[in-house]
Write a structure and sequence with these properties.
Arc Repressor Mutant, subunit A, two-stranded antiparallel sheet, 5 helices
């Protein structure tokens, strides 16, 4: 679904002097600013991995992957209908959640012609009942009509393998296991496991041994203690 959020981010990154929906070879590009190709991907990065790999042969590419940091849920009585309620979702996105997508992007990044920007955004999400307005609202019984950008809270920029450490907010010993990485990320263990995979596959960390059954990792260029 092409949401308002997607359109708003395209316009934001294109700027006043850029163009939107530009054909480059066999690909349609979301925005072009000067010689920079910009792809806004609200869905999974796996969907544009091969496209980015093809484009980077001749072009500089910026991949924009928004993370919803905060979401206001707006309930409608039906599709295109009247608002009947609104509340903040308890779920919050954090920078570390980008690792969940980067596991599918290790063959496209890092690369000298590819940059990633992850804007943490606040959005309004319009929803209506999935089985008609006569059905009572249930937690999972809805269809998303649209998402609208309210504001960009922060933007994380990744250009090299070392920039991946910007996604790790807390202090981290060297070497570390995924439990310690989870604490540094302030995220569940499964996020840390994906983060460790990305850091290793993208050349930012290396596996240096084990502590019991836990694998140990160290930053590239850092000696293991």
């Amino acid at each position: 679904m092409a949401t308002s959020l997607h359109q708003q981010l395209k316009a934001l990154y294109a700027g006043d002097l850029g163009e939107q929906e530009v054909r480059v070879g066999r690909y349609r590009i979301d925005a072009v600013r000067d010689d920079l190709l910009i792809e806004v991907q609200h869905g999974g990065l796996a969907a544009i991995r091969d496209k980015v790999r093809a484009l980077r042969r001749r072009h500089d590419v910026l991949v924009v992957k928004p993370i919803v940091a905060r979401r206001r849920l707006i309930k409608l009585d039906c599709q295109g209908g009247t608002e009947v309620g609104r509340r903040w979702s308890p779920k919050r996105g954090i920078a570390a959640h980008l690792f969940d997508e980067l596991v599918h992007f290790t063959r496209a990044f890092p690369h000298k012609r590819v940059r990633i920007e992850a804007p943490l955004v606040e959005v309004e999400e319009l929803r209506y009942p999935g089985h008609g307005k006569r059905r009572r609202w249930r937690e999972n019984d809805f269809i998303v009509e649209d998402q609208r950008l309210v504001r960009v809270v922060e933007t994380i920029e990744l250009a090299t393998r070392d920039d991946l450490w910007r996604l790790v907010g807390g202090p981290l010993t060297d070497p570390f296991d995924t439990a310690e990485l989870a604490a540094a990320l302030d995220a569940p263990r499964w996020v840390a496991q994906r983060a460790a995979y990305c850091l290793r596959e993208m050349g930012a960390a290396r596996e240096v041994g084990k502590r019991g059954n836990a694998r140990l990792y160290a930053r590239v260029g850092h000696a293991a203690a």
